[in-house]
Amino acid sequence: MTTQHTTGHTTGQTTGISGAEIRLEEVVKRYPGQKTAAVESLSLTIPAGEIVMFVGPSGCGKTTSLKMINRLIEPTSGTILIDGEDVRKSSADELRRKIGYVIQGGSLFPHMTVAKNIAIVPKMLGWDASRVKGRVDDLLDLVGLDPSRYRDRYPRELSGGQQQRVGVARGLAADPPVILMDEPFGAVDPITRQRLQDELLSIQRELRKTIVCVTHDIDEAIKLGDRIVILREGGHIAQYDTPEVVLASPADDFVSDFVGSGSTLKQLSLARVNEVDLRETVTARIGEPTADAVQRAEAAGERSVIVLDDRDRPRGWPWLRQLKGDRIVEPTEDLVTVDERSTLNDALDTMLTSSHGAAVVTGDRDRYIGIVTFDTVTDHMRLLEDRAVEERAHEQAAGERA
Ligand SMILES: Nc1ncnc2c1ncn2[C@@H]1O[C@H](COP(=O)(O)OP(=O)(O)OP(=O)(O)O)[C@@H](O)[C@H]1O
């Protein structure tokens, strides 16, 4: 699949970044009849290829700011530049090509199939039928839906999470350098939400778009954001920084109240699965004789095996006693995995739904890379707590000296 943006901008071509820089310069939005502006004067640079999360209390101007970028809302004054070009000078077609848009629930057209929903923008841009078809299948694959099973379904025949995946595919359809997302995962249950977030991180690792995403959820902002913009009323920036800095040194009381106390659990949201040691375990292939897999596992002292498909994707994690009745290894339906870029917090949630006290970890394109265990996470928590105690002692000693 083409991951490089090919419409003329040069940002990051050598580094694999396909996103474009976004600059807001003193952008103001005053709705008719409003006494105070919804956004008073917002200036901000969003680097190419990064995910920037907008958070803040209800009504602070997050959605207004986002929609001004693709001109769904016209700014009252100020300038917005994408890759140095003023969005006001772009035609509607150019904006569609440059900016994908994903909102809660995917907002799919109910009377159109999945394929038609995804193809809307490419068709508007005049792509020929075979290119559109190829693109739809690529995108379904990218968002983890088997094209042959899902392309001809209607939105009502999909779960909420699947609809949201199609919504993401539609946002990516014309390979735009910029994707805007408004509460994209707000309408799904926590486990699906976590999966969709993981998938977004995995897709982003591949595509390196510039993604601007509005959320109510500070944990989602910490997890997904390369940077977080915390807005207060009137679209004023309270802090704009990496999640690490926002958590470790909130700019003021407003930010620390909003972010919540720097508890160990919050710190677990900062640590990624790929930062701790993963454990190897025995794997088996779908279709191989069960006896072989059982023998390998028993020789290694394991009581279960991870079942992989022909593309190394985990498809089950049976106990050996469950396997013994079958002649060949079969997939099971209920395996929940975590992406290597997931937070330890998510891994912990996933483990709580598993009888193994561990979670299966996947990398690019959902390939199996190992397991993360409960003990590893609790060890890491202990390490963080020790560090925090040390830091407090250090600060106290410094205070006493002064
Ligand atoms: N079309 C409109 N006409 C008048 N006022 C509006 C309009 N849209 C939004 N506002 C007001 O502008 C301010 C910012 O709204 P906006 O939707 O951008 O906030 P938000 O931070 O996204 O809020 P939420 O988190 O509740 O979605 C609010 O005071 C809102 O009432």
Structure description:
The protein has 402 residues and is an alpha/beta fold. It has two domains: 13-260, 3-Layer(aba) Sandwich (Rossmann fold), CATH 3.40.50; 275-378, CBS-domain, CATH 3.10.580. It has 15 helices and 16 strands. It has helices at residues 62-69, 92-98, 114-124, 129-142, 147-150, 160-172, 190-207, 218-224, 243-248, 253-259, 264-270, 290-299, 320-323, 344-352, 374-401; strands at 22-29, 39-46, 51-55, 77-82, 85-86, 99-103, 178-182, 210-214, 227-232, 236-241, 283-285, 306-308, 314-316, 337-339, 358-362, 368-373. It has a six-stranded mixed beta sheet, with helices on both faces. Helix 3 (114-124) crosses helix 4 and helix 11 crosses helix 15. The longest helix has 28 residues, at 374-401. The chain is flat, with a radius of gyration of 23 Å. Residues 31, 34, 38, 56, 58-64, 216 line the site of adenosine-5'-triphosphate.
Q: What's the arrangement of secondary structure elements?
A:
Blueprint: E1 22-29, E2 39-46, E3 51-55, H1 62-69, E4 77-82, E5 85-86, H2 92-98, E6 99-103, H3 114-124, H4 129-142, H5 147-150, H6 160-172, E7 178-182, H7 190-207, E8 210-214, H8 218-224, E9 227-232, E10 236-241, H9 243-248, H10 253-259, H11 264-270, E11 283-285, H12 290-299, E12 306-308, E13 314-316, H13 320-323, E14 337-339, H14 344-352, E15 358-362, E16 368-373, H15 374-401
Parallel strand pairs: 3-8, 3-9, 6-7, 7-8, 11-12, 14-15
Antiparallel strand pairs: 1-2, 1-4, 4-5, 9-10, 12-13, 15-16
Helix pairs in contact: 3-4, 3-6, 4-6, 11-15
The protein binds adenosine-5'-triphosphate.
Adenosine-5'-triphosphate is lined by residues 31, 34, 38, 56, 58-64, 216.
Pfam family, one: ABC_tran
Domain CBS: 331-389
Keywords: ATP-binding, CBS domain, Nucleotide-binding, Repeat, Transport
